Amino acid sequence: MAGVPSSLMRLRALLPFGVGVAVGAAGATALLLTAAPQLGVADAVAAPTVAAPPAAATPAAAAARPGLPPDAPTAGPLVLALQDALKLRSPTGTAHVQVLAHGQNAWLARLDMAPGAKVPEHADATEEYLFVLAGQGTVWIDGHASKTRPGTTIYMPAGARVRYENGGEALLALQVFAGPAPASKYAGWKPWTP
């Protein structure tokens, strides 16, 4: 399609039904989430990428939005261009998240991990989902190991003991917490500009 970068066309081919890629008039890209499985790239290209201006942060609002720095906006756009998403870098520099959506009932991010990076064993209070777009690795859920590769969906029940070891190439995944509280693990990560 004219005006759609080939990298976005490849990304669209990897995304599950209900997820689309939009290109705005100025060339800004955004991920669009929809319940319409018939959404195609042509529909996404025509979708607007207009964003509401973020509201000022308050201490109470920041505390209610774990995973975001205290000065992060407390309200934001309903449609967010990917390049405008908050980017956070792990203290070790081996992982990055881009916060795509942060609501009262869910949290969505793009997750990037360096080759060989590891997530230590932990348990989250809510369900977590990963959809692997690129890279390979191994996830352990309550002691059971499973290999992951592009196209793998990982479901981690609330309270499950999980850990992850990335393979020899970078991981790219969509990460969802069904309840935003576990995103507080990213509170110590620093804003990052690639």
Write up what this structure looks like:
This protein has helices spanning 6-14, 41-46, 59-63; strands at 19-23, 29-33, 86-89, 95-102, 107-113, 118-122, 127-134, 137-141, 144-148, 153-156, 162-166, 171-178, 190-191. The protein has a domain at 84-191: Jelly Rolls. The model is unreliable at 1-66 (pLDDT under 50). It is 10% helix and 37% strand. The chain has a seven-stranded antiparallel sheet with strand order 10-7-12-5-4-3-13, with no helix packed on it. A four-stranded antiparallel sheet has the order 6-11-8-9, with no helix packed on it. With 194 residues, it is mostly beta strands. The chain is globular and about 40 Å long.
Q: What's the number of helices?
A: 3
Strand content: 35-45%
- What's the CATH C level of the domain at 84-191? Mainly Beta
Tell me the quaternary state: single chain
**SS elements, strand count:** 13
Radius of gyration: 17 Å
CATH superfamily of the domain at 84-191, by name, is Jelly Rolls
Give the name of the CATH architecture of the domain at 84-191: Sandwich
Task: Name the poorly predicted regions.
Answer: 1-66
| Global morphology | globular
Q: Average pLDDT, to the nearest integer?
A: 72
Q: Main sheet: which strands, in order across?
A: 10-7-12-5-4-3-13
Relative helix content: 10-25%
